Amino acid sequence: EADEELKLNLAETEKFTLPSGQEFEKEKSEAPDLQIIQARIRDVISVLQDFKKLREEGRDRSSYLTCLKRDLCTYYSYNEFMIEKFLQIFPVGQVFEVLEANEVQRPVTIRTNSLKTRRRDLAQALISRGVNLDPVGKWSKVGLVVYSASVPLGATPEYLA
Q1: For 60-110, how does the pLDDT look when each residue is reduced to its tens digit (9 = 90+)?
Q2: 3-state per-residue secondary structure call for the chain
Protein backbone atom coordinates (compact mmCIF):
# COMPACT_ATOMS: atom_id res chain seq x y z
CA GLU A 1 0.00 0.00 0.00
CA ALA A 2 2.87 2.35 0.81
CA ASP A 3 4.53 1.51 -2.51
CA GLU A 4 1.34 2.43 -4.36
CA GLU A 5 1.16 5.79 -2.56
CA LEU A 6 4.80 6.45 -3.42
CA LYS A 7 4.17 5.66 -7.10
CA LEU A 8 1.09 7.88 -7.05
CA ASN A 9 3.05 10.77 -5.52
CA LEU A 10 5.85 10.35 -8.07
CA ALA A 11 3.35 10.25 -10.90
CA GLU A 12 1.75 13.48 -9.70
CA THR A 13 5.05 15.33 -9.51
CA GLU A 14 6.42 14.14 -12.88
CA LYS A 15 5.67 16.41 -15.79
CA PHE A 16 5.27 14.92 -19.21
CA THR A 17 7.59 16.33 -21.87
CA LEU A 18 6.94 15.98 -25.56
CA PRO A 19 9.56 14.11 -27.56
CA SER A 20 11.82 16.23 -29.74
CA GLY A 21 11.80 16.15 -33.53
CA GLN A 22 14.91 13.98 -33.49
CA GLU A 23 13.21 11.41 -31.27
CA PHE A 24 10.24 11.29 -33.67
CA GLU A 25 12.59 10.74 -36.62
CA LYS A 26 14.34 7.97 -34.71
CA GLU A 27 10.97 6.30 -34.02
CA LYS A 28 10.07 6.47 -37.71
CA SER A 29 13.22 4.61 -38.71
CA GLU A 30 12.64 1.80 -36.18
CA ALA A 31 9.72 -0.53 -35.52
CA PRO A 32 7.27 1.27 -33.22
CA ASP A 33 7.21 0.28 -29.55
CA LEU A 34 3.46 0.19 -28.92
CA GLN A 35 3.79 0.31 -25.13
CA ILE A 36 5.75 3.56 -25.30
CA ILE A 37 3.27 5.02 -27.79
CA GLN A 38 0.29 3.99 -25.65
CA ALA A 39 1.85 5.55 -22.55
CA ARG A 40 2.59 8.75 -24.48
CA ILE A 41 -1.02 8.86 -25.76
CA ARG A 42 -2.31 8.65 -22.18
CA ASP A 43 0.17 11.32 -21.03
CA VAL A 44 -0.71 13.72 -23.84
CA ILE A 45 -4.43 13.26 -23.20
CA SER A 46 -3.95 14.01 -19.50
CA VAL A 47 -1.93 17.14 -20.36
CA LEU A 48 -4.60 18.31 -22.82
CA GLN A 49 -7.32 17.84 -20.21
CA ASP A 50 -5.56 20.14 -17.72
CA PHE A 51 -3.45 22.15 -20.14
CA LYS A 52 -2.67 25.22 -18.03
CA LYS A 53 -1.34 23.19 -15.12
CA LEU A 54 0.44 20.29 -16.87
CA ARG A 55 1.84 21.74 -20.08
CA GLU A 56 5.51 22.07 -20.80
CA GLU A 57 6.70 25.67 -20.92
CA GLY A 58 7.12 26.95 -24.46
CA ARG A 59 4.79 24.34 -25.98
CA ASP A 60 1.39 25.23 -27.36
CA ARG A 61 -1.75 23.12 -27.56
CA SER A 62 -1.29 22.43 -31.27
CA SER A 63 2.06 20.70 -30.70
CA TYR A 64 0.41 18.34 -28.20
CA LEU A 65 -2.47 17.69 -30.61
CA THR A 66 0.00 16.98 -33.44
CA CYS A 67 1.84 14.49 -31.23
CA LEU A 68 -1.46 12.88 -30.21
CA LYS A 69 -2.64 12.56 -33.81
CA ARG A 70 0.65 11.04 -34.93
CA ASP A 71 0.66 8.53 -32.08
CA LEU A 72 -3.00 7.57 -32.58
CA CYS A 73 -2.36 7.01 -36.30
CA THR A 74 0.60 4.77 -35.48
CA TYR A 75 -1.05 2.86 -32.65
CA TYR A 76 -4.42 2.17 -34.30
CA SER A 77 -3.34 2.21 -37.97
CA TYR A 78 -5.88 4.85 -38.92
CA ASN A 79 -5.08 7.58 -41.41
CA GLU A 80 -4.82 11.23 -40.33
CA PHE A 81 -8.23 12.12 -41.77
CA MET A 82 -10.03 9.56 -39.58
CA ILE A 83 -8.14 10.56 -36.44
CA GLU A 84 -8.95 14.24 -37.07
CA LYS A 85 -12.64 13.35 -37.49
CA PHE A 86 -12.63 11.38 -34.23
CA LEU A 87 -11.00 14.35 -32.47
CA GLN A 88 -13.64 16.70 -33.92
CA ILE A 89 -16.53 14.46 -32.88
CA PHE A 90 -15.40 13.33 -29.42
CA PRO A 91 -13.76 15.17 -26.52
CA VAL A 92 -10.03 14.48 -26.20
CA GLY A 93 -10.58 12.43 -23.05
CA GLN A 94 -12.99 10.06 -24.81
CA VAL A 95 -11.12 9.53 -28.09
CA PHE A 96 -8.87 6.84 -26.61
CA GLU A 97 -11.89 4.97 -25.21
CA VAL A 98 -13.76 5.17 -28.53
CA LEU A 99 -10.78 3.87 -30.49
CA GLU A 100 -10.28 1.05 -27.98
CA ALA A 101 -13.96 0.12 -28.32
CA ASN A 102 -13.51 -0.02 -32.10
CA GLU A 103 -10.79 -2.63 -31.63
CA VAL A 104 -13.09 -5.08 -29.81
CA GLN A 105 -14.42 -7.81 -32.07
CA ARG A 106 -18.19 -7.73 -32.43
CA PRO A 107 -20.25 -10.88 -31.91
CA VAL A 108 -21.51 -12.82 -34.92
CA THR A 109 -25.23 -12.28 -35.36
CA ILE A 110 -27.59 -14.00 -37.77
CA ARG A 111 -31.14 -13.27 -38.82
CA THR A 112 -33.81 -15.92 -39.23
CA ASN A 113 -35.67 -15.86 -42.53
CA SER A 114 -39.17 -15.79 -41.07
CA LEU A 115 -40.68 -16.83 -44.44
CA LYS A 116 -38.90 -20.21 -44.21
CA THR A 117 -38.65 -21.00 -40.48
CA ARG A 118 -39.11 -19.71 -36.96
CA ARG A 119 -36.24 -18.52 -34.77
CA ARG A 120 -36.88 -21.27 -32.21
CA ASP A 121 -36.67 -24.01 -34.87
CA LEU A 122 -33.48 -22.55 -36.36
CA ALA A 123 -31.91 -22.24 -32.91
CA GLN A 124 -32.71 -25.89 -32.10
CA ALA A 125 -31.27 -27.09 -35.41
CA LEU A 126 -28.06 -25.09 -34.93
CA ILE A 127 -27.68 -26.17 -31.30
CA SER A 128 -27.92 -29.81 -32.42
CA ARG A 129 -24.97 -29.07 -34.77
CA GLY A 130 -22.84 -27.77 -31.89
CA VAL A 131 -23.48 -24.03 -32.14
CA ASN A 132 -23.57 -21.99 -28.91
CA LEU A 133 -26.14 -19.20 -29.41
CA ASP A 134 -28.77 -17.04 -27.75
CA PRO A 135 -31.58 -14.79 -28.98
CA VAL A 136 -30.45 -11.22 -29.67
CA GLY A 137 -32.94 -9.73 -27.26
CA LYS A 138 -36.56 -8.98 -26.64
CA TRP A 139 -36.51 -6.24 -29.26
CA SER A 140 -35.89 -8.70 -32.13
CA LYS A 141 -37.98 -11.72 -33.03
CA VAL A 142 -35.58 -13.00 -35.69
CA GLY A 143 -32.01 -12.34 -34.45
CA LEU A 144 -29.54 -14.79 -32.89
CA VAL A 145 -26.11 -14.12 -31.38
CA VAL A 146 -23.58 -16.88 -32.11
CA TYR A 147 -20.88 -17.26 -29.45
CA SER A 148 -19.08 -20.31 -30.84
CA ALA A 149 -19.62 -22.97 -33.48
CA SER A 150 -17.96 -26.32 -34.06
CA VAL A 151 -18.83 -26.11 -37.77
CA PRO A 152 -18.75 -23.06 -40.07
CA LEU A 153 -22.22 -21.49 -40.13
CA GLY A 154 -22.04 -20.98 -43.89
CA ALA A 155 -21.63 -24.73 -44.41
CA THR A 156 -24.79 -25.79 -42.58
CA PRO A 157 -27.88 -26.90 -44.54
CA GLU A 158 -29.92 -24.35 -42.59
CA TYR A 159 -27.78 -21.55 -43.99
CA LEU A 160 -27.77 -22.92 -47.53
CA ALA A 161 -31.57 -23.48 -47.61
Answers
A1: 888 888 889 999 999 999 999 999 999 999 998 899 899 999 999 888 899
A2: CHHHHHHHHHHHHCCCCCCCHHHHHHHHHCCCCHHHHHHHHHHHHHHHHCHHHHCCCCCCHHHHHHHHHHHHHHHHCCCHHHHHHHHHHCCHHHHHHHHHHHHCCCCEEEECCCCCCCHHHHHHHHHHCCEEEEECCCCCCCEEEEEEECCCHHHCHHHHC
